[in-house]
Amino acid sequence: MSQGVRGEQLRGHLNRRGIRILRALDQVATEIAAPVAAVSIAWLLAQRTIAAPIVNTFATHHVEELMQGAGISLSRTQVAELTRAGN
Question: C-alpha distances in angstroms, 79 versus 25, 50, 68, 84?
Fold first, then answer.
């Protein structure tokens, strides 16, 4: 039974690095009481090399969570923690 293309793509990212990133996102999201999706967008917007994050969503509430990210200002420490988790 196939899990579909999306499942296969996600499985490829659930390695040590992926788990580190998810833990860092969870930690920062808890610190600032925001959804993980919003923290993800806030981190992307904090990157000088990213002009406009592109997202994909399947539900209206996901769009609302992502839009929250535009109003979040992460601390330098939080940005560094998320960046370090991804390296």
Answer: 10, 14, 17, 9
- Whose tokens are 């925001």? That residue is 34
- Residue segments in the chain with a per-residue pLDDT below the cut of 70: 1-7, 9
pTM of the predicted protein model: 0.81
Do the Cβ atoms of 20 and 85 come closer than 8 Å? yes
85's tokens: 């988790």
20 CB burial (10 A radius; 0-12, 13-18, 19+): middle
Nearest to 79 by CA among 32, 35, 33: 32
Quote the CA–CA distance of 24 and 69 in Å, as a whole number.
16
